Amino acid sequence: YKFRDLTIEELKHVNKTYPNFTFSMNTYTFKDGSQKDLLNFSGTVPVKYGNSYNIPIHLWILDSHPFAPPICFLKPTANMGISVGKHVDARGRIYLPYLQNWSHPKSTVLGLIKEMVAKFEEELPLYSVSSSDAARQSELLSYIAKITEGETDMKSKAKIGGGKNEGCLNKITIVGAGDLGIACVLAVAAKVAADKVVLLDLSEGAAKGGTMDLEIFALPNVEISKDFSASADSKVVVLTVNSLGNAQTYLDVIQSNVDLFRGIIPAISHYSQNSVLLVASHPVEIMTYVSWKLSAFPKSRVLGVGANLDAERFQYILTNLLKAQVLAKDAWIIGEQGEDKVPSWTHCNLVANQTEAMAARNSRETVANRAMEVLKGKGQRSWSVGLSVADLADSVLKDKRKVHSVSVLAKGCCNINSEVFLSLPCVLGASGVIEMVKLEEDPAVQEKLQSSAGSIHDLQQQLKL
Question: Where does the UEV domain start and stop, copy by copy (predicted)?
Fold first, then answer.
């Protein structure tokens, strides 16, 4: 459990209020077939509906608790039938507004049970079956038991749980409703890269500024929400949030962002377990590393925007301003975002002899230096980064197999032995990073990458994840 102490403390309160609950660890099977050993508890809650009833329930506590809500089921006995209603489905799965609006720290298991009791007192979820129906009911309960102890019937689950996202083939969630988040929404909408775009506004209070304007002018297929569940089944999740705390040092700024991500990534990865995480928060190399660690996703499905914008600009400058089309084809900006980025090439043009090779390299270096000077004058405004994000998301959603310079796990590349993320040219597709593109061997470039990796790793070692 990622937040073990918080989870234990909360369940102590549950045990004190409901001493009849029994706790255990069992394997839970999610709808994608993945499994986890999760804490769960069973017991009865008292409900008054004319008479007093003890309603048996079974709750699964996710390993990202308390930032994600429990998964709740009824656990009827052989002489009980399930009354399907707005809060309970035919399998006994419980749906409540409290679960939909779950938000730590105001949401608790005790609060959830309190609302459960209140809703059950409005509409009793179980009824008594006659002895003649008991045999048929036992067969049904056997099926329900399989579901409550692990959802094994994935096809049935998909049909019943389709909900508001059913039929949405390409869905993108953008986390953060600041200038960058809104720029990403507009860029994605303009590029028509998604069937649906969800903007998660995690700010306190009512909608303000750009978010309010988005609501006023109602872009097609754009939903604004404060509820993590709205991100469910996204193919791409873009992280644009940055902490606005009163940090005094650079390390404090990064730690503040890490603390922010600790409350976001577990919930996002719970609702979209097969998504590609695309990080645009700062500093992008470290926050991509943090996202990878907190999500436990494979490295191929966690990447940062890295030097994609600079690389595209670099190629454009070479082609259109300096008329060096041959060089532009294999030119990339790689490494660390900011002043420490470095130009590199994926191929070395073969020439007849060593003298010509030296002359070719000198000529290429001169042109590259001119291009870098032009590049330095280009800032990274929210709208330009938004366009870059839309380009990357489009490559993933449409499985384009296009090469981009993005922040990926660089361990094993250029003699880098630490777990750091640096921008490198990679082929992107539906599963994220499909492969890295081999770079020309250049000792000077490798030295710069190793230097960046060293400084990033030193910072990471001082963070509290």
Answer: 1-130
Please state at what angle helix 250-262 crosses helix 284-295, rounded to 10 degrees: 30
Angle at which helices 109-122 and 4-17 pack, to 10 degrees?
40
Where do the CATH 3.10.110.10 domains begin and end in the chain? 4-128
Helix (H, G, I), strand (E, B) or coil at 225: strand
Running DSSP on this structure, what letter comes out for residue 321? I
CATH domain 4-128 topology: Ubiquitin Conjugating Enzyme (3.10.110)
Domain covering 307-462 assigned CATH 1.10.10.10 in the classification: no
DSSP-derived secondary structure for 13-70:
HHHHH-TT-EEEEEEEE-TTS-EEEEEEEEEEEEEEESEEEEEEEEEEE-TTTTSSPP
Instruction: Tell whether the model's pLDDT for residue 105 goes beyond 80.
Output: yes
**Region(s) of the chain under CATH 3.90.110.10:** 307-462
Q: At what angle do helices 308-316 and 354-376 cross, to 10 degrees?
A: 110
Rounded to 5°, the CA angle 124-129-135 comes to 135
With cut-offs at 50, 70 and 90, classify the pLDDT of residue 245. Answer: low
The tokens describing 55, both together, are 């309603």
Long-range CB pairs of 107-113 (<8 Å, 24+ gap) are 107/66, 107/69, 108/10, 108/13, 108/66, 109/10, 109/11, 109/13, 109/14, 109/59, 109/61, 109/70, 110/10, 110/13, 110/14, 110/17, 112/69, 112/70, 112/72, 113/14, 113/18, 113/45, 113/57
pTM score of the predicted model: 0.63
* 171-304 homologous superfamily: NAD(P)-binding Rossmann-like Domain (3.40.50.720)
CATH 3.40.50.720 residue ranges for the chain: 171-304
Of 344, 242, 296, the closest CA to residue 2 belongs to 296
Extended beta strands in 292-401, E state: 302-304, 331-335, 341-345
- Are 428 and 408 in contact, with CB atoms under 8 Å apart? no
33-79 tens-digit pLDDT = 678 889 999 999 998 877 888 899 999 999 889 988 999 999 888 77
Residue 270 burial (CB < 10 Å; 0-12/13-18/19+)? buried
Report whether 344 contacts 445 (CB < 8 A): yes
Give the pLDDT confidence of 347-392 residue by residue, as tens digits.
655 444 555 555 556 667 777 777 777 777 666 788 899 999 999 9
In whole angstroms, what is the distance from residue 94 CA to residue 86 CA? 9
Q: In terms of residues, how long is the chain?
A: 465
